[in-house]
Write a structure and sequence with these properties.
It is a single chain. By secondary structure, this protein is mainly beta. It has one domain: Outer membrane protein transport protein (OMPP1/FadL/TodX) (Porin, Beta Barrel). The chain has 2 helices and 20 strands. It has a 14-stranded antiparallel β-barrel. The longest helix is centred in the N-terminal third of the chain and has 17 residues, at 2-18. The two termini are 19 Å apart.
Length: 428
């Protein structure tokens, strides 16, 4: 059964990385698209915090955590951990006058981590970073009182391949680094038509984007009274220096047949827009927590990003400005008794959290905020493996100022397996 689930997740991973429907949010029009959750299901269900690490789970947000892989597994030191996650998101999009329901299913991550030796681990994998997927229609009257209709749609997104390593410098102090290579295509299309006019106009822009960024992490986790642990973490995701190779087409088409009449390639070289830079500002995250190893944990994180310096000159959106972004997140977990032999439910991990995002987007003079409540469970399998189920309720944006309020319910399913699962039994 587990092998069939693994095969299904791998197939979904290949399909999702090339699919163009990773989101249906109108806010994916801005920036580089709708930002995806970049942590594992375990991270996401604790409000997205990333300071906690152990020996049997990969932590995609915190490369210093790789230094702990395999340490607590005793005689099983040196195991390889495989981790994968998918999500299904149902949304209600609401304006001041109407609403619409929709949903989307995506791959969240596919990763491998292993211990090289005690105190040193390495991991690599692939995940989506952002998604563009919207279809918007607006109507207004021109100066002559004639109805003008604008239809905007977009698709595409950015993916990421990464390699991480974490090393324990001294007791309780670990350092880690992740190198990310980001790549993908962003497609934007605008169609304008005027009432009683036979032909419409189109403006289509494509950007092929790629570039690097790095994530550094420092963890300090001293023990208190030989029972409890204090967790602290500093993470810096450096500025992503992305290069965008752009093309633009403009022309006319028939409103009756939908076929293009005349489409011309715009000379972007003359406008110095053929190759542009997208600089995603540095994000700094501070976190503290407290807990008892493999029993319970509570933590909080604060993230800051100087997004006010971001711009996309090629897209040239008129109704948005960027300001500095921030996130406050709280979360934790509880395991009734991880050593219980007579009660399966006592070994289940119960997780919960919440977060508040100041996205940094100001659209039509309105700050776009996001609030989410998360909860989930980790179901133990054999040989330190587990099946993780998570849920998230949230709301983003507002229906004021001709904007869209998004209410969403997200379901996450993830697997964390180790190589012991795949070993054949020597004794039946």
């Amino acid at each position: 059964m587990i092998k069939k689930i693994v095969i299904a997740i791998v197939c979904l991973a290949v399909n999702s990385l090339y699919a163009q429907d990773g989101t249906i949010s109108p806010y994916s029009y801005f920036g580089i698209g709708d930002q995806r959750a970049l942590g594992t299901i375990e991270n996401q269900m604790m409000g997205g915090i990333g300071m906690y690490s152990d020996s049997i789970h990969i932590n995609l947000k915190n490369p210093a955590s790789y230094s702990k892989l395999g340490i607590q597994a005793g005689e099983n030191f040196g195991i390889t951990t495989y981790s994968a996650g998918v999500s299904h998101k149902a949304l209600r999009l609401k304006t001041y006058t109407e609403q619409q329901n929709s949903s989307v299913t995506n791959l969240d991550y596919l990763s491998i981590g292993f211990s090289v030796r005690k105190g040193w681990g390495i991991g690599f994998g692939v995940m989506p970073v952002s998604s563009v997927g919207y279809n918007l229609v607006s109507e207004s009257n021109n100066s002559n009182g004639v109805l003008v209709t604008n239809q905007l749609n977009g698709e595409g997104g950015l993916n990421r391949v990464y390699i991480s390593t974490g090393y324990q410098l001294i007791n309780n102090l670990s350092l880690g680094i992740t190198a990310n290579f980001n790549f993908g295509t962003l497609k934007y299309r605008r169609i304008q038509s005027v009432a009683d006019v036979q032909f419409g106009t189109l403006d289509q822009r494509n950007s092929r984007v790629n570039g690097m960024d790095f994530n550094y992490a420092l963890n300090y986790t001293p023990s208190i009274n030989d029972k409890y642990t204090f967790y602290s973490s500093l993470r810096v995701n450096t500025q992503a220096n992305l290069t965008s190779k752009n093309t633009k087409e403009v022309g006319s088409f028939s409103l009756v047949t939908g076929k293009n009449i005349e489409v011309l390639d715009v000379d972007l070289d003359a406008q110095n827009l053929r190759n542009t830079d997208l600089k995603i500002p540095t994000t700094t995250t501070l976190g503290i927590g407290f807990g008892e190893e493999r029993s319970w944990f509570l933590g909080a994180e604060y993230s800051f990003q100087g997004l006010s310096s971001f711009s996309n000159v090629f897209l040239d959106a008129e109704n948005i400005e960027y300001k500095d972004a921030s996130t406050i997140a709280f979360g934790g977990f509880f395991v009734p008794n991880h050593n219980s032999f007579d009660g399966y439910f006592k070994r289940i991990t119960y997780r919960a959290g919440l977060r508040l995002d100041q996205t940094g987007m100001v659209i039509n003079n309105k700050d776009i905020k996001n609030f989410g409540i998360t909860f989930g469970i980790g179901l133990p399998l054999r040989n330190y493996s587990n099946l993780n189920l998570g849920f998230e309720l949230g709301r983003r944006g507002t229906s004021a100022s001709d904007l869209v309020e998004e209410s969403y319910f997200k379901v996450n399913v993830g697997l964390s397996l180790n190589d012991l699962w795949f070993q054949k039994r020597k004794i039946n």
